[in-house]
Amino acid sequence: MQCYTELVPPTAVTHSLVLPFLSAQGNNLVVAKSSLLQIFRTKIVSTELDATLARPSRAPAPFEGRITNDDDALETLGGDALVSRPERGNSTRLVLVAEFPLAGTVTGLARIKTPNTKSGGEALFVAFKDAKLSMVEWDPERHALATISIHYYEQDELQGSPWAAPLSDYVNFLAADPGSRCAALKFGARNLAILPLKQPDEDIDMGDWDEELDGPKPVKDLSAAVVNGTNNIEETPYSPSFVLRLSNLDSSLIHPVHLAFLHEYREPTFGILSSSQMPSHSLPRKDHLTYQVFTLDLRQKASTTILSVTGLPQDLFRVVALPAPVGGALLVGANELVHVDQSGKANGVALNSLARASTSFGLADQSHLELRLEGCAVDVLSAEAGELLIVLNDGRLALLTFRIDGRTVSGLDVRMVSPEHGGAIVPTGVACLSRLGRSTLFAGIEDDDSLVIGWSRGQAQASRRKSRVPDPSAELEDEDEDMEDDDEDDLYADEPTVKRPAAATGGAKAGDLQFRIHDRLLSLAPIRRMIYGKHAFFSDGEDAGSTAGVRSDLQLVCAVGRDKSGAIAVINREIQPKVIGRFEFPEARGLWAMHVRKPVPKSLQGEKGGTTVGSEYDAGVQYDKYMIVAKVDLDGYETSDVYALTAAGFESLTGTEFEPAAGFTVEAGTMGQSTRIIQVLKSEVRCYDGDLGLSQILPMLDEDTGAEPRVLSASIADPFLLLVRDDASAFIAQIDSNGELEELEKEDKTLVSTKWLTGCLYADKSGVFAEQQADKGAKSGDSILLFLLSTNGALHIYRLPDLSKPVYVAEGLIYTPPGLSPEYAPRKGTPKETLSEILVADLGDSVHKSPHLVVRHTNDDLTLYRPVRFSTVGQTGLTKTLVFQKLANPSFARSREEVVEDESTIQPAFLPMRPCSNIAGYSTVFLPGPSPSFLLKSAKSSPRVVGLQGAGVQALSSFHTEGCENGFIYADSEGIARVTQIPADCNYGETGVVVKKVSVGVDISSLAYHPPSATYVAGCNSYEPFELPKDDDYHKEWAKETLTFKPTVERGALKLISPLNWTVIDTVEMEPNEILMCIETLNLEVSEATNERKQLITVGTAIAKGEDLPIRGRVYVYDVAEVIPEPGRPETNKKLKLVAREDIPRGAVTAVSEIGTQGLMLVAQGQKCMVRGLKEDGTLLPVAFMDMNCYVTNVKELSGTGMCLMADAFKGVWFTGYTEEPYKMILFGKSSTKLQVLSTDFLPDGRELFIVANDADGHVHILQFDPEHPKSLQGHLLLHRTSFNTGAHHPTSSLLLPKTTVPGGSGAAAASTANENEPAQQPQHLLLASPTGVLATLAPLSEASYRRLSSLTTQLTNSLPNVGGLNPKAYRMPAASCPATGVDAGMGRAIVDGAVLARWAELGAGRRAEVAGRVGFNSPQEVRSELEGVLGWSGLAYF
What is the pTM of this model? Predict the structure, then answer.
């Protein structure tokens, strides 16, 4: 069997909602990405502050430039633009609070205000596919979601007629009453589930009780509900739900379209758009929709019809409820907008010329706008002014304004937002809009990065605005500064800027809204195609030489986005650093670069302490000046040297009091406000001034015993120093105002008697560890905390300089529990972890950073904890309010290689983790050793472990000089030292991989890599107006066509892209109406005489000129030729050269592939698959063919074998073979003819051949060709082994790749069990891509691995909590409507779910040992070895 593992989480935003979720006063954004739920809060960042951080004395961090607004480019734009163009005003940024993978596909979100939630905020309804509804709330103590209830409506008796389609075929949506009285889930054909919600006084059914007339209100007697001391009344915020048949509400509700709950009604009231006839564009039906408003009586489970509006246009598809003062509902159609108020009065506006032809409903005429409203999104900008924002399907912005006479709407006006005012900042259509604040909203986009958009009212200084849309002018400042206030507190801020509708429609430029982008969420969706290629360098060879050893063998390149948001995403699993300098430095074992202030000479000191001295004496942030290096030479002699830092490197420094022979440096840094350099040696601590003059030596000497303990590790946090020595003692010192180190007295005897394993210091600047949570303004000197880990695994926290008693003690850290607190008490005999180091450091970026506890295991695995503070009544202090919550970290460190130790070689000291406060704007932690990695976290992501490309790292330090700003220097295990930077044009934290996204600006449907020229060829399609043929002899009237609102059709173009700088260097336009269908690089025979082979670009197209004309196809063969480049653009030395062209009279060319061993190609043309050979005259000679059924979506060949797969869009998978003597195609086997296949591929496993078929419902079907099986009819029927549900992540593209084995992993075990007499076969696996941005692998497992991992999945499912009460096992089962794909031979087996296996680390040590024993593993370490070969990118080391 196989294992399915997701490598990259979904990034396409499908739903969003803003509500006070974390607290009653909060304003949180909940984002759903199909099967991932994320919770954000907002933070106001001053762009003026960001600009000041980029002053010349400290060059701009690339990340700081990346988080500033630049809407014309990617999020990964460098920060150099900040120097020349400082911005003013505030920007709203998103900060991730928590994220939760879900075992289901989200179809709707709704907010509900319920009493007595744990956080005091509102509750959240999450609707899932197939009629599931979960009600969740925020649990501040666990810092997680708590499930209140889950409701299922999948019963057969709710489906209605037996011929009704399955639930998955219907559009299900969720709606909630604005008054929080009920929620409604429409599912199936015409079912409406109503979930009543209890109100605060609902327990006493006396809402109209008048105490003056009726006397005191009686209190409900609860004593009768108490039996044997137990309260039998279950307090739930909801009442039992019930299901209504819409046809029972009204007989005309047969075909519902959409519904929404309305505002300003005392009872739950919803408006529904429906019809008694089936919608049809071909039948002459017009104006058959009806809008009705119903009021629900939740107690009687009845309804009352309030109003009904008939004769509405048939293209209406959405109901948008509007708040006061407009009220009523807005009905959105494809060609018009209709408003229906509370009295039933309708006003509409036609927005294109087709509206008049499609409806007889009375509409105002604004058809000159020629807008297409299909797929648009609508949200309220200003309820008081009656302004709504419309985002069209192409991303353009429009404003809808209501003309109000009193409280009656008299008309609607729509006007476009000009590009100068930000009308083009959204590149494509949006899936959802959510109002974040008074002048910001969130636009969730499925096909591009999701955006936080802000707006302000333009003023008279509009002429000062630059041509760049995102550049905020000075007039934005006043409006944006008020965004820190909550919407609920905003009473008067909009009053001065609110224009009456007449002023808004009168063209007053001073009141125009100006839009700009504040923030964005990275998206890789949809992944249209993926390939792999090699890194490219310019011909001078300098880059190739300097980057040797830090570049991966290959890079994964994906075509992502749609329409104008089309882009190329370059993905690597590890950081490829930008090398500034490269040196041979084999003796380096430790690096510390630092900035220090020089001592101010007395001659320069003024009366006020030398306030006029130069910048080199300043305490401000400056470039690093010195670097201390710990060395071990070939003879094992330990020394330390100091170097002066230059722009891109370092040089030796002599003539100072620094003594190299003093010994090996364990730690170095600055103290005393950067006036002292601290060098921690194994036997002493040395203190230097800013000129490296020795000022103090502090020896490690125990005066009582005379012992001289050696220093093992050290931690510096000005003004304190912590040393952990080899006698398991801790030494804490403080530097005084004179720059002298003095040891602190250990008043707590436990501090002296306890054996300490490791420790660290942390400067709590955010107040997370403050005694009182509100005490965030504590002095920095009082916020230094000492963390110590004892040898028995207890965590002790002291608040320096007070060492009289610890402020927090947690005994169970060595058990790595899911939640660490002083109350945690493991059972006796619980297995312990082997820990080597702890570190508390800030992780984040310049927008937001927060402390994390990093626990390092002896095998270099990392366990991450986040401190969580929660307040309870009557409890204060850290002991009662602080809990360390374990974070998910599915990554494993590389397995250490066994090395024969030489006794004469002195082994280097333990390599501690290194916190870095600013590397490319990130506050990060680096893990050295054989698995070098950065712990990276952005404001919008969870912490991710991202590896550093290359060999193991022995030493690393941050490196901030004029030539390498906010970079780092490191020495690897091969003796090479590099001065590097993290590339600024990449994203690291949001997906867990390194992503470089390059915008192309056009839809990319296919992509191919041409290895000889090292270039990429992208097949792009763009829409253009469809023109009728003017020269048609049978339709003379076509030449006189006057239609202005023309339909659009696709037109293809080939773009040659250079990976040197990812620019388009050549473009080949196709003919009008010619669409690019597929592009492949094929190794074809180009000469019949010499049998010469050449890799050529093969392109398949379709020519579609209308529904009444047949589709024709065409095959192009291109080569990439070298030409003279353009001046100043050396990358433009290549062009596409046409080699062959073949017209296909019938059918489109939908797929091409290599086949056989003679350099021929397989072309899927219409209903045939034909083998063709390239002739020297530029024609394609057919030699063999096979008839297909309907439409071939995919063709794959098992390289060099002649065996190929052909996927039909409606008739399943065909497994065929091709022979060359004679030329012939043979059908080996077929799947079921009812299978709709999007893509297919081979998955060989030893001597077995599996076929993977991905259908349109998200199922992955595993088929097998086995002619020896009795049910296969000698192989004519493919065996169906199992099916697996991927949810919304339908695999549409796949790559069969070799799998790199991990020592001790499942791949190595499988390879070791192979027959020794047979040649070793490289294990392979499939890389899958989906429209939601998910990358996943499907890897074969050995029989032993499958059985154990399958059992482990079952144990983890039962042991771990599941968000929303969902069932991961049921989520992965195929739907009931899934057709049989072949002869059933699965024997109850299923694909192993890697998403469940990835949660293995969430268990504590004791629970892991227990589960491992149940499954059949000898130890948890054996489970880790098994998972290391299955999870993550371990099998894709070449990326």
Answer: 0.89
